């Protein structure tokens, strides 16, 4: 009878992973998961902000349907009483469990992570989370600061631990409980790192000597970037170490050496995360459930590491919207393993890095909004219907298709050669691309450009990513009736993937409009 689900969602993780071709990072455990999974190279979030992205993929609805573009409303009250993915599993006989940051905490999940609708028992939050933004980073002369770059001695931390360590421990405890209960489960584990502050055990720094760390390939603000598209990374500026640099707003670049330190600490935080994922998957093996548990690994969105002179998320660029996405399905992405053989032995990033390749890799452009129907199909549940054009009144439907049909990646290689599509209409249906959006309060960067409140939104950037291009239009938006006026275009962006993979040369104005 049906398989269990282990759903791992990471905060602010762009695909800097060995299995995605990154040559610097040490991520052996996630790479090992990838080597037993189907990996999607072109997966995108629907908005590069935590709460809107999470509510979107957990309900299977786009931000224009959840009407959440900030942190300050609960969709069941504000938009429609939409069922969530965990709720659907719960209603189909699963024990649903939440550990760490799955829903964004606060009003956007009704201050209780949508319990009891979504979860069988109240969600677990690590107690050490409350120290996350405190002054716990040792600076010059041993003084403590609330820094962005924050390697720490874990034994000196309040209660001698970090939030993600606590989440792993709790998830492992729950796996042991579920093993003996013999009930099907849906266990969601939300990790905090590499979300800022970049606070992680200091030993991970030695994996990344500073001399090996480069700047972003394009650390300047592109000449033809519309000002409305730029995000001024206000949250970074509020950290003690960044504030001390006194960088001019909004474009002032960070000093090169500090850019390298941020990049170094982001990588170190990813390796720390990798160890937590490794311990969790190793425990899945220990309790003997790796043979009948689907494992999904993804992130809520990416994070810019200096590309375009930008940091953090808050934009429509690939660096902010692209996420890792992989599915391990026993018997489907791997042949079944004989009893007692380990599938996920723990690998230390300090020892060997294996250079494992994904079991299967799909280059299809997919969206996180497809997670809900995909997991339903993989678990053998009825796939919720596609939503009608307006679906505020529909409790259960999905705005993205299941992507299980892309899991057989061997067929894709053949298609690559016949890429030129004769019938443009079939092309559009088959490859619709991925849609993301981002709101702005004005046409030029403001202090609230990164995270405008609903009432302050004046422009919405709607972005479409296909295999060939990223196309974005910034249009007038009215927050009172949630309407976008596509006849009133404030700015546009067009980047060709093949000739401009980093999205530095906006050719929107070179192409005929209309």
UniProtKB/TrEMBL annotation:
Domain Sulfatase N-terminal stretches: 4-380
Gene Ontology CC: lysosomal lumen
Principal cellular location given in the protein's record: other
MF GO annotations: iduronate-2-sulfatase activity; metal ion binding
Cofactors demanded by this protein: Ca(2+)
UniProt keywords, alphabetically: Calcium, Disulfide bond, Glycoprotein, Hydrolase, Lysosome, Metal-binding, Signal, Zymogen
EC number: 3.1.6.13
Family of this protein: Belongs to the sulfatase family.
Subunit text: Monomer. The 58-kDa mature form is composed of two chains resulting from proteolitic processing, the 42-kDa chain and the 14-kDa chain that remain stably associated and form the 58-kDa intermediate form which is enzymatically active.
Protein name per the record: Iduronate 2-sulfatase
């Amino acid at each position: 009878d049906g398989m269990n689900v282990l759903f791992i969602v990471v905060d602010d993780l762009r695909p800097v992973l060995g299995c995605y071709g990154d040559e610097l990072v040490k991520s052996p455990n996630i790479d090992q998961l990838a080597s037993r999974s189907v990996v999607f190279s072109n997966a995108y979030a629907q908005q590069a902000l935590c709460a809107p992205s999470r509510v979107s993929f957990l309900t299977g609805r786009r931000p224009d349907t959840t009407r959440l573009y900030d942190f300050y409303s609960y969709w069941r009250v504000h938009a429609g009483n939409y069922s969530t993915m965990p709720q659907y599993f719960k209603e189909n006989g699963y024990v649903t469990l939440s550990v760490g940051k799955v829903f964004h905490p606060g009003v956007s999940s009704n201050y209780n992570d949508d319990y009891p609708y979504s979860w069988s028992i109240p969600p677990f939050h690590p107690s050490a989370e409350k120290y996350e933004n405190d002054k716990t980073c040792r600076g010059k002369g041993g003084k403590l600061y609330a820094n962005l770059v924050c390697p720490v001695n874990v034994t000196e931390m309040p209660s001698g631990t970090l939030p993600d360590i606590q989440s792993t421990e709790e998830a492992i405890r729950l796996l042991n409980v579920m093993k003996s209960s013999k009930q099907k489960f849906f266990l969601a584990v939300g990790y905090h790192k590499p979300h800022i502050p970049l606070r992680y055990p200091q030993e991970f720094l030695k994996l990344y000597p500073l001399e090996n760390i480069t700047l972003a390939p394009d650390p300047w603000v592109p000449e033809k970037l519309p000002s409305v598209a730029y995000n001024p990374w206000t949250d970074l500026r509020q950290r003690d170490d960044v504030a001390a640099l006194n960088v001019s707003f909004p474009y002032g670049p960070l000093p090169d050496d500090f850019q390298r330190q941020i990049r170094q600490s982001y990588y170190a935080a990813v390796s720390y995360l990798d160890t937590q994922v490794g311990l969790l998957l190793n425990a899945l093996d220990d309790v003997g459930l790796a043979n009948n548990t689907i494992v999904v690994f993804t992130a809520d969105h990416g994070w810019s590491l200096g590309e375009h002179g930008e940091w953090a998320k808050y934009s429509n660029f690939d660096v902010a919207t692209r996420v890792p996405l992989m599915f391990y399905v026993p018997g489907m992405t791997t042949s079944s393993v004989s009893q007692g053989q380990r599938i996920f032995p723990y690998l230390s990033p300090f020892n060997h890095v294996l250079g494992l390749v994904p079991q299967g890799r799909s280059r299809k452009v997919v969206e996180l909004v497809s997670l809900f129907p995909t997991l339903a199909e993989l678990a053998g549940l009825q796939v919720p219907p596609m939503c009608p054009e307006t679906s505020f009144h529909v409790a259960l439907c999905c705005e993205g298709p299941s992507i299980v049909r892309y899991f057989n990646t061997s067929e894709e290689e053949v298609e690559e050669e016949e890429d030129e599509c004769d019938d443009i209409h079939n092309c559009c249906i088959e490859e619709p691309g991925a849609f993301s959006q981002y709101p702005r309060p004005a046409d030029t960067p403001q202090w609230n450009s990164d995270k405008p409140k609903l009432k302050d939104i004046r422009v919405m950037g709607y972005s479409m990513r296909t295999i060939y291009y990223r196309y974005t239009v910034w249009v007038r938006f009215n927050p009172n009736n949630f309407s976008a006026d596509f006849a009133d275009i404030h700015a546009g962006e067009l980047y060709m993937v093949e000739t401009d993979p980093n999205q530095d040369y906006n050719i929107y104005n070179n192409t005929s409009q209309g």
